[in-house]
Amino acid sequence: MSETVYKNIFAIILNFIYNFCTLKIIRADMTNKRRHKRFPLTGSAVITFPDQENDDKVNTIISDISRSGLGLYSDVPLKDNVDVSVEIKFISADGLIKTDFIEGHIVYVRKFGEMYFLGIQFHNEVNPTNQPFLNEHLQKIDLLNL
Length: 146
What we know:
Elements: H1 3-28, E1 39-40, E2 43-48, E3 57-65, E4 69-74, E5 82-91, E6 97-112, E7 115-122, H2 132-144
Antiparallel strand pairs: 1-3, 2-3, 2-5, 3-4, 4-7, 5-6, 6-7
C-alpha cells in the first residue's frame, strides 16, 4: 500500500477516537453553544473551488457533520475564508454509499500532525430538497441521540 493510503487509514482511526471522546464530552458538557449537534460521519468529500478558474479538486476524509457545517481532514493545506463546493460520499444508516452536494465556506484550518483539519460552514443548512440523503441520515441519527 502507498504512503497516502496509510495516512488515510491513520486519519480514519484518529477520527474515530476523536469522535468517540468528543461525543462523550459534548453530552456531559451542556454548555456547548453550537446551533446544531455534530455527528461522526464515515465518508469522504471532494472539495472544489467555484470562484477559481482552475479545476483543482482536494480529496478529504470526513470527521463530523451538522446541519450547518462539516469537519474534514486533508493532506493538502487550504486557505480559510474561501468559498467551496463539496461532494460528500458517506455510508448511510442503511449501509449504502450515498452522495450529496453542498456549498460552503472554509472557516477554520489547523495543522493536525501531517494533515490539516478543516471546518466548513454551509451557506444553507442541510435540507430535504437539496441534500435528501444527508438530511435523511441526520434525521435518523438525531432520533437515536435524543
